[in-house]
Design a protein that fits this description.
Layout: H1 20-23, H2 27-38, H3 45-59, H4 62-74, H5 79-83, H6 96-109, H7 120-129, H8 132-155
Helix pairs in contact: 2-8, 3-4, 3-6, 3-8, 6-7
């Protein structure tokens, strides 16, 4: 696998010249449904945003990390909370419920040398903070980012551009 030099210029154009959403217009319906699911009110929007920011960091997508950072800022999250998502386990800025959600996204998205990614202990910890609908919503919030990871990594939209129009 070839790596880009850390001193190389990063292109300011998407890798894929066509917008995948325009090539496959059916995506709009799926995307809207995913946003309705994660916005059902059972999990605080800030928790969803923190989890999705962490997911973008884990998969190594600058586009997703910048996108979810922007969403969190627009929602009024403090810079301290946003900045410390990358090292949440050592940060005083998160509630126990948020920590359980962040541990869950890490377990789902990172390989486990010890076998099962989501242990019974982690599941019990998350379930202790989130009732059934909220826990399902949290799972779908992780899945929502997972759904868009291939677009972020393969097509490489330009970070910082509008979420609704990253190809212009």
């Amino acid at each position: 696998m070839e790596k880009r030099s850390v001193t190389a210029e990063v292109p300011m154009a998407p890798r894929m010249p066509e917008d995948p959403a325009q090539l496959v217009p059916e995506l709009a319906e799926v995307s809207a449904a995913l946003f309705r699911v994660t916005g059902n009110g059972s999990v605080p929007r800030s928790t969803i945003g923190l989890v999705q920011l962490r997911a973008g960091q884990i998969v190594g997508s600058t586009y997703l990390a910048v996108l979810h950072t922007g969403f969190l800022r627009e929602a009024g999250e403090s810079e301290e909370r946003i900045a410390s998502v990358a090292c949440w386990w050592d940060s005083p800025y998160f509630t126990a419920a948020e920590r359980a959600a962040l541990a869950l996204v890490e377990a789902v998205l990172q390989p486990s040398a010890g076998g099962e990614r989501v242990s019974d202990e982690l599941y019990a910890r998350a379930a202790g903070h989130y009732e059934g609908k909220a826990l399902a919503t949290l799972m779908f919030a992780i899945g929502q980012v997972g759904f868009f990871v291939p677009v972020a990594l393969v097509a490489k939209p330009v970070p910082g551009r509008s979420f609704t129009d990253p190809w212009n």
